[in-house]
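Async update (no meeting this week)

Hi team, since we skipped the sync, here's where things stand on the single-chain job. The sequence we agreed to prioritize is pasted below, unchanged from the tracker. I ran it this morning and attached the output directly underneath so nobody has to dig for it. Comments welcome in thread, and please keep replies under the output.
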Amino acid sequence: MGERKVDFMIIGAMKSATTSLHAYLNQHPRIFLSNPKETDFFIEEKNLSKGLDWYHGLFKNADQSQLLGEATTSYTKLPDFTGVAERIYKYNDKVKLIYLVRNPIERAISHYRHSQGFGRVDLPFEKEIRQDISKYVQYGRYSYQIYEYLKYFDKNQILIVQSEKLISQPKQTLAEILEFLGLDSISIDVSGVFNNSQEKTKRTKFNKILRENVFIKVFKRLTPRFVTTAYLKLTEKKLPNLMITPDDEIFLKTKFKEDVNTLMDEFHLDLNYWPQWEN
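Output:
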């Protein structure tokens, strides 16, 4: 790849349709996206130590005509991962940033169910969101997250997109995103909405053993993917629906209200997609 640098990054937010956007953009012939989707490269606690050669190696098969992109939701996970915006700026101060945001209450619920699916929840939802520093709240404080980037990048380098708009009006929204990237709009198959099924099921202890045991991993490599996937699904169990109480909704709305108002004012987002914030 030579000295080419990544042209754009989808920086979040977690549980806000980044997987769908990644799948849609991957269809564009002028775009090359990293595999894996989330590189976690600019995070000191994750893959930063692997070095630029490793990072650029993820794009080695790209054509010269293609824009290079990646999508890492952990790039907007303050206060857990700090220094990310500065590292990205030092790497490429001309990079374009796309930030997908979702109704923060819905995002918090989805995030909690995702954590449940991986067995990473110790407290019920109403207690988790009331922790002094709750990731379910912090990751949905979009103004707080994006202002870290505004310390380094011009506002015109950042495109904030409501995920509800992407899902309900995918062709129009994709055209806007492609225009932001300086690319012509093309016909993209938007029939699929991609999400993480881990919001619906929970991995049992036996399921974890099957996924992590070294002998099982060898077996999986020698077995057709559809067989191992089906078998692993049998060892999962369905999660119950998460119904939040009116008190929880009022609490979260109070927590997010100032942040949402700032985001709407600064980036002129459409409140029609988040009707509960109109009052």
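Quick observations from my side:
The two ends are 51 Å apart (CA to CA).
The first helix runs from residue 18 to 25.
Reply here if anything looks off.
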